[in-house]
Amino acid sequence: MTRSSFSWCRSAALGLCAALPLAGQAADPPAWPDPVSSPAERMPLAARSLLLDALRAGDGYLVVGDRGHVLRSADGRDWTQSEVPVRVLLTAATARGDSVWAVGHDGVIVHSADGGVHWNVQHRDSYEDGAAAAADPRHGAPLLDVLFVDDRHGIAVGAYSRMLVTRDGGASWQPETLAVAPANASKEPAAAAPAPAGASPAADAAQDGEDGSMVFSEDELALGEESDPHLNAIVRTGSGGLMILAERGSAFRSRDGGDTWQRIQLPYDGSMFGAIGYAGDRVLAFGLRGNVFETGDLGESWTRRASGTEQGLMGGSALDGEGAVLVGANGVVLMRRSADAPFETMAQPGAGVLAGAVALDGRRLLLVGENGVGEVELP
Q1: 54, part of any domain
Q2: Percentage of residues in the chain with pLDDT exceeding 70?
Q3: What is the CATH number of the domain that holds 220?
Q4: Residue 332 lies inside a defined structural domain of this protein
Q5: Whose CA is closest to 313, among 267, 275, 264?
Q6: How far is Cα 230 from Cα 227, in angstroms, rounded to an integer?
Q7: pLDDT by residue (tens digit) across 103-142?
Q8: Structural domains of the chain, count
Q9: Which of 192, 241, 293, 379 could make an S-S bridge to 229, C-beta 3.0–4.6 Å?
Q10: CA proximity to 364, closest of 350, 346, 351
């Protein structure tokens, strides 16, 4: 199978991309049970499998990842696997109180009303949906992040600019197209072209520029204008502003709860894999080659933050006092204690690629990635 036959997925940066057809390309009938209709298998070593996101949920912690794995813990050390009705890779999750939503491949959205114990499917794309797949070229594309503005209004984003929106708590999800108004008519940024999935952060970096330099020719940018960028992350700020981070430095912002969006451009032409929203209009974005940028005005201006690393940064979360922890390739862990503090590096040898982190008790960080669950003591 050639590289072009793979779709981008969040786990591409982990070197573990799933074999999915390109958008609009017919898939051969699978020789195995449809993963969107098959329940996740209970596995004794699920806590050591590929896990892509970690968060607080209810009174404890929850992690999601490969083959529909969802695990719960009260203390971040002892884990119980939940029964989940799908077997696809779950890429991200969000929680509001005891309500939890997780998204993943094949357009899957699953929901739990009891902190992650029991789950039901709210949305999925089946291999058997021939007519739907023919009508929607994004059918089957992975969802990469999800955010709920309130208990009713949620937004899921993913590959090929896919966006699903609910306004009834997830009872129904409708596809929507980004209604983009240029942020600056005199300097409208070039659209980003979805790159084929790479096998490593270095491969993804090379795809952002033919020579890996992150400098684009006019021809490359012109090609990008013809395609929809993958939407990698969505965050909300304290003021209620929304921002979506995407490929090749492209981003989208909304000041009206997602009714309309403006396309903006970061001062870096590489992909951003994640972001953290803070009070006011502050957003911290991070991605390829250790690049970190911060805005205090929802993307009107950006400031580069020195990360001290060239490793790809895949995940992160906020700490008290507008601090942050960021994690990524080769076990890199970065931490700042406040918005004005520099990042400190806390490498974790042997941890592999890390995809997510969340503070446990003020002294420990819960880490997830290609080797499952881990933790590190805060300095």
Answers
A1: no
A2: 76
A3: 2.130.10.10
A4: yes
A5: 275
A6: 10
A7: 999 999 999 999 999 999 999 997 666 666 667 777 789 9
A8: 1
A9: 192
A10: 346
